[in-house]
Amino acid sequence: MKTKGRKKDKVNIVTLGCSKNLVDSEVMLTQLRGNQIDATHESQKDEANVVIVNTCGFIDNAKQESVDTILRYADAKEEGTIDKLYVTGCLSQRYRDDLEEEIPQVDAFFGTMELPLLLKKFNADYKQELLGERILTMASHYAYLKISEGCDRPCSFCAIPLMRGKHVSKPIEQIVTEARNLAKNGVKELLLIAQDSTYYGLDIYKKRNLAGLLRNLSDVAGIDWIRLHYAFPTGFPTDILEVMAERDNICNYLDMPLQHGATQVLKHMRRGTTREKQQELIHTIREKVPGIALRTTLIAGYPGETEQDFEEMMDFVEESRFERMGVFTYSHEENTHAHNFDDDVPDEVKQERADQLMALQENISWEINQKKIGETCKVLIDRREGGRFIGRTEFDSPEVDNEVIITADDRYLRIGDFVNVKITGASEFDLHGEPVL
Ligand code: SF4
């Protein structure tokens, strides 16, 4: 499609990386449309003459995917399929100078906090009145709600503070306004996200105030589920557990990336905690919120990780019996503290250890799921696949956790509805069931 003589720009936003990047793209989409600019998100139609790639710069694989995506659109620009190519997000924030040199086809690179500058390229202004408004791109019944930006933690392996800056909490009023607007538009589930959600409030309220925020969000009419992600173990505000226990619309679910289970490695990672302290915290959480689903993320193959350290981590996973778990292999990131050390664990050993951890988790998850058979669970319907409906319980976050597969030949279930489902079968990472009439 030749672009000569085109009057009005048609913009397509492409998002890579995490849910925080997705929220940024949704804000960008809302601002562009708020300025009467014809914009879409991840459109498969080949109509746009302007493409904005919102990149991820977290670890090797993610960086490679971002570079490949930019290059794909750089080729499209050379072929005349698109007129303009803009790049924003974490990779752009972190490697702008190198990228400008290596990919001159890109019209402009922007950092993670430069949306107003990007809008200027369309002669558009950042509309304050749209604060709290957001066009959702994934589903209409659940939405990610970013409660802060950046991070003050010194984790040795992590490049995120280099890309997202210092921790900045959003005021409670602003977050509650956004939640009300989302609820008004039909959202029933809010997924609270941040780099470190448990740090919330320390900057603007001079105290940890996640409990206060949760109470306010729990009072928002129309919100049935509030899900907490990205908690940090050190300085964990246990008062949030009381709020979780007292409020029905706060899911008995907690995502708390712990990164490792061996004290020696946790020290080296500058996590400010030990295996014992993590065990104690897990015990406290399970005691205060019985039946809670704990999700964590671990890193395999950190510099200097010995076979013994790894065995200790396996033992930690065995003892903790997380309901949900993900594992990354260590990625040697420039300008991080850990980059000063030898990346001495061979890639195949990293992968082997990650596989062993996930094999252990598969067994744990299978045993946990078997106990659900015969139970009736409240399930939020996310989508339809052929004659089956796919949903989630309060113990499952979208895209990363288990799903409930529902055969409903004789009944039509609506996406976005809650349905009571009798669990009839279970596998490692999924439950199967029938709607309760
Ligand atoms: S808390 Fe998370 S985002 Fe912050 S430095 Fe540690 S790993 Fe990175």
Notes on the protein architecture:
This protein has helices at residues 19-34, 60-78, 90-102, 115-120, 160-164, 172-184, 210-218, 239-246, 263-268, 275-288, 307-320, 347-370; strands at 10-15, 38-41, 50-55, 84-89, 108-109, 142-146, 148-149, 168-169, 189-193, 225-228, 250-255, 293-300, 324-329, 376-385, 388-392, 403-407, 418-426, 430-435. It is an alpha/beta fold and 437 residues long. It folds into three domains: 10-129, Methylthiotransferase, N-terminal domain (Rossmann fold, 3-Layer(aba) Sandwich), CATH 3.40.50; 136-370, Alpha-Beta Horseshoe (pyruvate-formate lyase- activating enzyme), CATH 3.80.30.20; 376-435, Nucleic acid-binding proteins (OB fold (Dihydrolipoamide Acetyltransferase, E2P)). The strands form four sheets. The chain has a six-stranded parallel beta sheet. Helix 2 (60-78) links the parallel strand 3 (50-55) and strand 4. It binds iron/sulfur cluster. Residues 151, 153, 155, 158, 160-161, 195-196, 232 line the site of iron/sulfur cluster (SF4).
